[in-house]
Amino acid sequence: MKATVVLAAAAVAAPGLSAVHSTQPPAEFRYTAAQLQCARFEENSRGRVVVETAGRRRQETVGRSGRWSLRARESASSIALEAWYDSLSVWREGPAGKSIPNTDGLLGGRYRGVLTSAGRYAVLARPFIPDEVAEVAELGGALEDLLPPLPTAPLEVGQKWGDSTGLELRRLPDSVAPGGVVHRLRLRVRTEAQLAAVRGDTLTVPAQQVTLEEGQLDWAPQVGLVRRVRHIVVESTIPAGGPLPQAVRSRLEQDVMLVRLTGAVGSRSTACP
Hints:
Blueprint: H1 7-13, H2 33-36, E1 40-53, E2 56-75, E3 78-94, E4 97-99, E5 111-115, E6 121-125, H3 131-134, E7 160-162, E8 167-177, E9 180-199, E10 203-220, E11 224-238, E12 248-261
Antiparallel strand pairs: 1-2, 1-12, 2-3, 3-4, 3-5, 5-6, 7-8, 8-9, 9-10, 10-11, 11-12
């Protein structure tokens, strides 16, 4: 059976959806194994990369579309999480043409880790990323970046929560969907790093890198995360040296949408209870 978007998420995205104006009590946001066990998500990403070096400017477009399947179980005070791509397409297009690598070697490969109720993820295992795929898309940390962080305290509408990493979450007015009330959070985070990736997932070099992310997540109390929308800008300055004979400046602007799907876990898994 073809998977379909969860009704709550579809309604949130639809024009004319009204906000709830009545008094809204504090809402709690936390992941549980029950929410994520047998969950499926569709992920779509589109971006533009501009690279400048030695007076030359090159522009590329990149994209990724895939469907995730997840398994989860309670483990001590956290969640043991396993995830894999059931389908995946990645591409990169630039002056030299369009590259669409075969991703079959990655499908079904397991990402494993431990997730806290607030969305902090620790890696235990990553699948092998074929070289031709790594040249086009950075997928080694795909699961680490999949699920958004959550506030550790209940929030009233209009209330903000943040942490020492620069993350800020603000609760928006709730929305009414056919499946019930949907809580909404606005996310903003700015981070700086001293390393930047040059090729795939394996090579990094010293750099000045600033990442700014803004987005929204929609949360149904009955099922948890139903939709995440992200706009990400990454600006990097890499000095000359090592593998780079010339200094490089780059800017990546990317839009990503993650939507929860209904339906059973894909055929590459054993049946979920």
